[in-house]
Amino acid sequence: MADQVELSYKDISLQMPIMSASDGSKFFDVRELKEKTGLSAYDPDLHNTAIAKSAITWIDSKSGKLLYRGIDVEDLVNHSSFVETSYLLSHGELPNQAQLEEYSRSLSKHSMIHESMRNFFDSFPGNAHPLAILATMVTALSSYYPQSFEENISKGIDVRTRLLAKVRTLAAWAFKKSIGQPTVYPRDELPYCKNFLNMMFAVPAESHTVTEADDRVLNQILILYSDHEYNVATTTMRFVASTRANLFACVNAGICTLWGARESDANLPPIILLREMIQNSQTPEQYFERFIKKGEPIVSNGLGHSAYGPEDPRATVSRKIFHEYRKNHPDALKSPLIRKALEVEEFTLGHPFFKEKKRYPNLDFYSALVFHLLGIPSEMNNVIRVIGKLSGWLAHWLEQRNETERRSFRPRQVYTGKMHRGYTPMDQRQ
Asked: What angle do CA 250, 253, 257 make, to 5 degrees?
């Protein structure tokens, strides 16, 4: 007899089957709970509830491991490219040489956006946030691909590849709009990340060359951001996908979650705290005193991650990436922000308070520093995160779409309002 959980309620006994995940973790199936007992489960943050089966990404919170399709993310950072990792996430396997070349060609071929979309950029105010522009433009793309995903596939059009190709163009143009510079068209001969950096920093008046070091470090950071199981953005995207909404609407939903203070700001506090310390001439000891001695909670500040008991593997890898890049960056130590960051790193990694609280510098801390050295302003940090996250979202979107037997997500509530009140006419109200 298969393992099961038995729930007894009044005179009802319900047997709920236990499911096993690939890692051996157990879940019991509550789908018949409401129908058979009249009860519903209450899990307000969904931290103890699995809402889908997925074969894309696995987090081991105990050992601090992160796997994409079964492959350690550190191996991908060391040996792969962002494009190859994107192929892995979307197709389930690493590509062979011919598949990778074809995938890369497709991303280059479709990096242009329809010329009429340039008019959309003109309509944004000069101070528009790049993330707002990107979200709007991704949604606008849907009007150029009105057919269903299946209809497009039958015509040889994979909108997932096209969106991944175009998102870097949209992101770079959003940045150019925000600083008042002319847009730069993509160049087919450049690989994915070099193409993006060229569109970001090239100007008509002079030539621009993207270095191999800049290209490599951006590839590595995007790989680390590619997927992280069911975080808020991915879950939101899958909620919308459960309605069979088109790809662009679903991705827009994921982007919009990054506006939230608990999500969007994750990449900004590292820069904010460093600038605050510099402005106030504070040492790390002085800045963190209110957290260590006065008990003020550390909300983010680029320190720690709640999904892991030990250190987030992405933090370990990104620390190495940053230091290697910094040492080969000729002007790194000329930056007051980088020098202050090194002080914070040394202080937090060596202080028992941060070790106990597991508040080590995380991926957002180190990626913010890498972006700073690349010359990318902080308001673009989350836009670049979208480029990385998109490769995972595309995989999740298709996985969700293939769940043909499932209905739209529809969580229940615990209603705590008043019941059955009559309508009070205006002249009788106090």
From this structure: 150
Q: At what angle do helices 232-241 and 381-401 cross, to 10 degrees?
A: 40
Task: Mean pLDDT check: name the lowest of 216-220, 285-289, 354-358, 402-406.
Answer: 402-406
Average pLDDT score over residue span 313-341: 94
Please choose, from the candidates 260, 231, 237, 267, the residue with its C-alpha nearest in 3D space to the C-alpha of residue 250.
237
Q: Which residues are registered as beta bridge partners of 27?
A: 19
**Beta carbons within 8 Å of 129's beta carbon, 6+ residues apart:** 178, 379
- Start-to-end CA distance of the chain, whole Å, equals 64
For 85-102, the pLDDT digits (tens) are 999 999 999 999 999 999
- Confidence band, pLDDT 50/70/90 cuts, at residue 2: low
| Bridge partner list, 26 | 20
Q: What pLDDT is attached to residue 47?
A: 84
HSE on the CB side for 204, CA within 13 Å?
6
Mapping DSSP onto H, E and C, the string for 252-274 reads: HHHHHHCCCCCCHHHHCHHHHHH
Domain ranges of the chain: 4-50, 69-203+224-256
Across the range 210-234, mean pLDDT stands at 95
**pLDDT confidence of residue 106:** 96
Please check whether residue 195 is in contact with residue 201, taking contact to mean a CB–CB distance below 8 angstroms: no
Who contacts 75 (Cβ-Cβ below 8 Å, separation ≥6)?
none
CA dihedral 301, 307, 311, 314 (to 10 degrees): -80
Task: Using DSSP bridges, classify how beta strands 65-68 and 26-28 pair: parallel, antiparallel or unpaired.
Answer: unpaired
Catalytic residue among 228, 312, 364, 372: 364
At residue 49, the 3 state secondary structure works out as coil
From 110, 228, 305, 372, the catalytic residue = 305
The CATH number of 4-50, from 2.20.28, 2.60.40, 1.25.40, 3.40.50, is 2.20.28
- Collapsing DSSP to helix, strand or coil, 429 comes out as coil
Q: What pTM was estimated for this model as a whole? A: 0.92
Answer whether CATH 3.10.290.10 is correct for domain 69-203+224-256: no
Structure token digits, residue 193: 């990340």
364 is catalytic: yes
Cβ atoms of residues 226 and 85 within 8 Å? yes
Dist CA 363 CA 367 (whole Å): 6
Residues 6+ apart with CB under 8 A from 126: 177, 178, 180
What percent helix, strand, coil does the chain show, rounded to 5? 55, 5, 40
